[in-house]
């Protein structure tokens, strides 16, 4: 899908789940220089620091217990002048980050969720908290964001009834700037995105 949208000359995909990587390896039409790795993006030392002109982290950071940590690790891989694209679940209310309070069963299809089914974190971040988290990453120059209202997944158990599904692109400066230089924000959210 990324190849259909962007011109990719080289591509590195990483997933902690070997099955996801095996499925990726079966896909045709991959860019000439493709590496598909089984690993943890937070810990994998083979991913060069500041090596990528685009890092895409979709439906991943908020399925992790440490959303800020995985975003920082992804940002650390972005080259100067590059961009990180992230999806996040957002709310005008308080952030919901505890696994006990908000989770999603890892279960697909319409069958009832089996007993003891594995759970993933279902983090929903306060909109301002998320914007602040991303705009204060080192050397953020511009933040472009889009969001729309939707319902949580049917397999999620969460106190949040309405989720603002957001996709955010964070552009990195080519060189460090003075700390008081402004960050440019370009936000396209529903008008009631900030109303609890
Ligand atoms: C909901 S899927 C989204 C997959 C894909 N990005 C998409 O948009 O279709 C989340 C994926 O993130 C992977 N994942 C979660 N934490 C990870 C981590 N720390 N490092 C690498 N992969 C991770 C999971 O194994 C899962 O395949």
UniProtKB/TrEMBL annotation:
<protein>
    <recommendedName>
        <fullName>Methyltransferase type 11 domain-containing protein</fullName>
    </recommendedName>
</protein>
<dbReference type="Pfam" id="PF08241">
    <property type="entry name" value="Methyltransf_11"/>
</dbReference>
<feature type="domain" description="Methyltransferase type 11">
    <location>
        <begin position="9"/>
        <end position="86"/>
    </location>
</feature>
<dbReference type="GO" id="GO:0008757">
    <property type="term" value="F:S-adenosylmethionine-dependent methyltransferase activity"/>
</dbReference>
<dbReference type="InterPro" id="IPR013216">
    <property type="entry name" value="Methyltransf_11"/>
</dbReference>
<dbReference type="InterPro" id="IPR029063">
    <property type="entry name" value="SAM-dependent_MTases_sf"/>
</dbReference>
């Amino acid at each position: 899908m990324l190849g259909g949208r962007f011109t990719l000359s080289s591509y590195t995909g990483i997933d902690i789940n070997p099955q996801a990587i095996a499925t990726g390896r079966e896909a045709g039409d991959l860019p000439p220089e493709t590496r598909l790795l089984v690993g943890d993006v937070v810990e994998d030392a083979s991913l060069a620091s500041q090596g990528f002109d685009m890092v895409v982290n979709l439906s991943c950071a908020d399925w992790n217990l440490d959303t800020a940590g995985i975003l920082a690790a992804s940002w650390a891989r972005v080259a100067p002048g590059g961009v990180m694209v992230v999806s996040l679940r957002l709310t005008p209310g308080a952030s919901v980050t505890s696994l006990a309070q908000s989770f999603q069963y890892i279960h697909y299809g319409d069958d009832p969720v089996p007993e003891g089914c594995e759970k993933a974190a279902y983090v929903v971040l306060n909109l301002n908290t998320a914007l602040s988290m991303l705009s204060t990453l080192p050397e953020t120059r511009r933040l472009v964001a889009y969001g729309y209202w939707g319902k949580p997944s049917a397999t999620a158990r969460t106190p949040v009834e309405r989720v603002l599904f957001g996709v955010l692109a964070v552009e990195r400066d080519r060189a460090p700037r003075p700390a008081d230089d402004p960050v440019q924000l370009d936000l396209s959210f529903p008008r009631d995105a900030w109303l609890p």
